[in-house]
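We close this part of the discussion by returning to an individual protein. The sequence in question and its structure tokens are set out directly beneath this paragraph:
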Amino acid sequence: MKITVYGASSGQVPQKYKDAAAELGRVMARRGHTLINGAGRTGLMGATCDALLAEGGEAIGIIPQFMIEQNWQHTGMTELIVTPDMHQRKEKMAEMNDACIACPGGVGTFEELFEIITWKQLGLYLKPIVILNTDGYFTALLDQLQRCVDEQFMRPQHLACWCVATTPEEAIRLCETTPLWDTNVRRFAAL
């Protein structure tokens, strides 16, 4: 499988998140999966990629040109794809993958996660979405999404757009076993 991993680019995050991201990379490599990410060299992006490559795995980085100009790219990627902008970067990451995992991150990671969930609600993306809830990082967000359902901003069926894992191993297992989303979900897109 090719699995897109979203995650923090910040190198200042607590070590526990870097450790989980590195373990995710190791598990992916051992199971023969290819990493797709934003090609950042630091933070959780870098930790996942470094660990995967150290285990002999393959990594495809997709990065916009302006980030190349800032030298933000990981130089060890198996393949580097440069896009003109952020929008095409995200489209390419979704188009090329068989599943995606959201690791802890900031607003960029949240934005990527929410966009891919929105696409799935609309039946535009049918593949597994896994939220890796390392040390409860996403618990408040998951509670907010439940509130969206409770107050009828989302349908209950939309809670099935994603799965939640607490360990890297569980995240990979969910990518491997979660069935494709049914395109009939489009009829639930409007409340």
About this structure: The mean pLDDT is 95. The first strand starts at residue 2 and ends at 6. Strands lie at 2-6, 34-37, 59-64, 79-83, 99-102, 129-132, 163-165. The two ends are 34 Å apart (CA to CA).
